[in-house]
Amino acid sequence: MSRPSYARPGMGGDSVVVCRDLRRRFGDRVGVDGVGFEIARGETYGLLGPNGAGKTTTISMLCGLLAPDEGEVIVAGRPITPSSTDAKRAIGLVPQDIALYPDLTARENLRFFGRLQGLGKARLAARMGEVLELVGLADRADDRVEHYSGGMKRRCNIAAGLLHEPELLVLDEPTVGVDPQSRNAILESIEELGRSGLSVLYTTHYMEEAERLCDRVGILDEGRLVAEGTRRELIAHVGHQAGLRVSGTGDLHALAAEFPGAVVRDGAVDLLVDDTGRRLAEVVGAAERVHVVITGIDTSEPDLEAVFLHLTGKALRD
Ligand SMILES: Nc1ncnc2c1ncn2[C@@H]1O[C@H](COP(=O)(O)OP(=O)(O)O)[C@@H](O)[C@H]1O
Ligand SMILES: [Mg+2]
Q: How far apart are CA 216 and CA 209, in angstroms?
């Protein structure tokens, strides 16, 4: 089967998304506090941030589901507001919550969504085949969705978002709560869509996903974009620092408390250091004081997790 092509030659190198100074409060709680970014055509752009950072609120405004208090969104050259039905057709949204009918098959669900989007019969039949193939559900398309795993439901949701051939695919944390096999299938589908020239906006709190999928990443924290760039540009923020991972037995939290920004994760203490030699001696000394027996020390190149820690003083994951 031939793969659908999303490349749109002739549109030039213009931006598919421009959003400026988006702000949204919920009562006295700040959801998004001045977010602006652009996505080039064909680019996969990631919004990376912990739970509550404002990813879903940003996406909801970008897709015209939520009116911003301030700011503007332009997608494929047209302003997006909750009442702009036409402009919204340029967007395929894959929401965080599953939006499928459980007692229908995948094919029946897609037919339903395709008709809602006004696709003709022949076009719909062709597109259904293409998108089911792309998300790896072609051989399970006639099973009822209620018998699907969480990951298969997500993949079906992605297929629904792609049916009408949007210019921009927006995915809100599509791998949360998904089995590893489906997670990999989802990531592979998105990589393939990216390669085919589709523009993608991807939100996640998993830095590995942002590193793997995204051409550029915006780091979101407490409603603000604290940094933006390619992986390499972002890592330049942490300068010549290296990651130090100290494994050991005993009270690792007590050891972490000795070093600002250090976190305990997966049975080890992670910290960023500028001078590895000097810090190693300090870590060994501190471990002795708090009665931690060190079983291993690894150093690593900084990653997006380290960038987040450096910029916010917090761990991306708890
Ligand atoms: N409908 C809402 N009512 C009240 N607060 C909200 C609502 N939606 C989001 N928020 C708040 O706005 C902030 C950002 O939320 P959200 O955009 O869902 O973050 P993320 O998707 O990054 O986890 C959080 O503090 C959240 O509690
Ligand atoms: Mg969210």
A: 12
CATH (residue range 240-301):
3.30.70
Q: Which residue minimizes the CA distance to atom 16 of ligand 1?
A: 54
Burial 195-233 (b: 16+ CB within 10 A, else e): eeebbbbbbbbbbebbbebbebbbbbbebbbbbbeebee
Are domains 15-235 and 240-301 of this chain identical in fold?
no
What are the residue ranges of helices labelled H in 16-64? 55-62
2 pLDDT band, cuts 50/70/90, is very low
* Predicted model pTM: 0.84
- Cα–Cα distance between 8 and 289 in angstroms, integer? 62
| Distance separating alpha carbons of residues 143 and 198, to the nearest angstrom | 29
5 pLDDT band, cuts 50/70/90, is: very low
- How much is the average pLDDT of 260-264? 87
Percentage of the residues of the chain whose pLDDT score is greater than 90: 73
Task: Give the model's pLDDT for residue 318.
Answer: 55
Determine the residue of 22, 24, 26, 32 to mutate for testing ligand 1's pocket, defined as the one with the most ligand atoms within 8 A of the Cβ atom: 26
What average pLDDT does the structure give for the chain? 91
The rounded distance, in Å, linking the Cα atoms of 25 and 40 is 28
Domains of the chain, by residue range, sit at 15-235, 240-301
* 52 in contact with ligand 1, CB cutoff 6 A: yes
Atom 27, ligand 1: which residue's CA is nearest?
52
226 CB contacts (<8 Å, ≥6 apart)? Answer: 219, 220, 311, 312
Phi then psi for residue 83, to 5 deg, are: -100, 0
Q: Which CATH number fits domain 15-235: 3.40.50.300, 2.60.120.330, 3.10.180.10, 3.30.565.10?
A: 3.40.50.300
